[in-house]
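[Discussion] Sanity-checking designs against the backbone

I'm trying to build intuition for which residues belong where. Below is a structure token string of 519 positions. I'd appreciate it if someone posts a full sequence so I can compare it with mine line by line.
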């Protein structure tokens, strides 16, 4: 539903998420020649500070009437512009017309200027003489400018007079969802995508394979797919909506652990101990058929997810938790020495496995991402270059400080489990994170525990950003609706801290009120 009402005939429009909606506002793709328009109706905006989440980088208030949408407001951008998608969505949000030219008072003008100096996701927004102008280098920047406008309209009815210069501190800002342990519908996921977009978050990490389920239709290996799953058509719709909201969907197929659902259908590939017992959820990385299966899946799903990244997992391989991995898993020990020479260990074999999966991802045009505990120190085999490390824990066996990864040239994405892990049922000493702790204590450079990286060792070049993670270890502990409500404030707080560098203005209570006002 739009933010304001206009007196027009009922029309049927095609929503960006694929559904038809009857609405009492104009077709957002309609163009209106200025010569045929009535005189503009000028509506004054609010006074005072700009209300947004996250807060903008700089806000310069000015004397003047501000701007509010009126019956004559249009969203104007040049036909074929990279801002067309953002303009169409804004027109729908405001229940107003679209036009290709002839911007005038009461209108919103979106302009793409490659030389604007705003950066790839930044924008400038100027409110002057009852008109709003949003300028950006890219469609993404223009879109984020419209999110600032929409939030201000929701909170205060319009925009005060002044100007904004805004751009994110970190390039990766997102949400991770474990839909393997607990199925979430396409509709629920699409609701979260709209929430992410309003918060200027730009990534959605989909963990769809684990011991408890494999949640996307497969044509290469249909036997592994769980009863409750997303069809490929549903995934395509999710990805298309995400792209329209400037969100990259990052798929994850975790291996060589967390493969229980895959192995239920392929028991011959299960890892076994020397005594013949099965290592639950672990694939036998000494068996060439294991690599062939996982690479089949990587190749099948890469085209479904056209974004730049594929997460290949690497965490919590049970063989590495044995007190003596070589004695407990002699087949792995033999394979390690056969592949990497005398003295090679099971850890080398595990490192080689992730190197191979990362190589497959790169062959498919993706930058591989891996969990930090899939990166093993020492040994004969070293992790391959050109990957990004999602750092979540400092309590795994052989735990290493974030700086060790940076020293080896691997950039980090912050998934600090002390602040950013929402684990259903709170098992294993996890507690539900609070937005207040994120807002008051955490920054993107607080990668492990509660202490930031030393000055000069963090920053946007080393810590690329952060993700808030929903893990569903005890799947029935909360309903999807409870999860959505539980993550609302923590996600907003993380958005604040990844977009805007430095201390936020206002208390936590003031921030939560602003979240409510702009939502």
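Best answer:
Here's mine. Compare freely.
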């Amino acid at each position: 539903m739009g933010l304001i009402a206009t007196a027009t005939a009922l029309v049927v429009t095609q929503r960006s998420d694929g559904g038809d909606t009857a609405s009492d506002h104009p077709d957002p793709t309609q163009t209106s020649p200025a010569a045929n328009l009535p005189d503009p109706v000028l509506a004054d905006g609010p006074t005072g500070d700009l209300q947004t989440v996250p807060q903008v980088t700089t806000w310069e208030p000015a004397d003047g009437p501000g701007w509010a949408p009126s019956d004559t407001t249009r969203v104007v951008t040049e036909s074929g512009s990279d801002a067309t998608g953002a303009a169409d969505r804004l027109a729908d949000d405001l229940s107003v017309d679209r036009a290709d030219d002839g911007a005038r008072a009461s209108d919103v003008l979106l302009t793409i200027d490659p030389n604007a100096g705003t950066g790839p996701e930044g924008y400038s927004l100027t409110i002057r003489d009852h008109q709003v102008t949003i300028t950006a280098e890219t469609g993404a920047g223009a879109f984020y400018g419209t999110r600032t406008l929409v939030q201000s309209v929701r909170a205060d009815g319009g925009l005060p007079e002044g100007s904004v210069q805004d751009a994110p501190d970190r390039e990766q800002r997102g949400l991770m969802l474990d839909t393997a342990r607990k199925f979430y519908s396409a509709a629920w996921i699409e609701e979260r995508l709209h929430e992410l977009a309003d918060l200027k978050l730009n990534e959605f990490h989909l963990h769809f394979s684990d011991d408890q389920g494999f949640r996307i239709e497969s044509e290469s290996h249909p036997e592994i797919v769980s009863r409750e799953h997303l069809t490929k058509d549903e995934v395509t719709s999710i990805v298309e909506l995400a792209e329209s909201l400037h969100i990259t969907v990052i798929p994850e197929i975790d291996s060589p652990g967390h493969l229980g659902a895959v192995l239920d259908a392929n028991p011959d590939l299960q890892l076994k101990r020397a005594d013949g017992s099965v290592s639950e959820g672990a694939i036998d990385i000494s068996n060439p058929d294991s690599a062939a299966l996982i690479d089949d899946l990587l190749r099948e799903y890469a085209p479904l997810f056209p974004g730049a990244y594929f997460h290949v997992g690497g965490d919590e391989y049970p063989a590495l938790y044995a007190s003596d991995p070589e004695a407990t898993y002699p087949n792995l020990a033999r394979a390690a020495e056969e592949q990497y020479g005398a003295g090679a260990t099971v850890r080398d074999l595990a490192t080689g496995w992730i190197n191979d999966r990362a190589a497959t991802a790169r062959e498919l045009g993706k930058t591989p991402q891996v969990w930090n505990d899939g990166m093993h120190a020492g040994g004969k085999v070293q992790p391959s270059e050109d990957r990004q490390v999602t750092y979540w824990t400092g309590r795994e066996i052989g735990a290493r400080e974030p700086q060790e990864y940076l020293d080896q040239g691997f950039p980090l994405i912050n998934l600090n489990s002390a602040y950013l892990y929402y684990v259903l049922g709170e098992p294993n000493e996890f507690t539900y994170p609070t937005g207040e702790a994120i807002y008051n204590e955490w920054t993107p450079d607080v990668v492990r525990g509660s202490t930031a990286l030393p000055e000069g060792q963090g920053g946007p070049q080393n810590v690329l950003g952060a993700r808030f993670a929903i893990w569903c270890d005890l799947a029935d502990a909360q309903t999807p609706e409870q999860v959505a409500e539980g993550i609302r404030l923590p996600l907003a707080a993380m958005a604040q801290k990844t977009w805007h560098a430095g201390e936020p203005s206002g208390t936590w209570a003031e921030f939560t009120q602003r979240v409510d006002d702009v939502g």
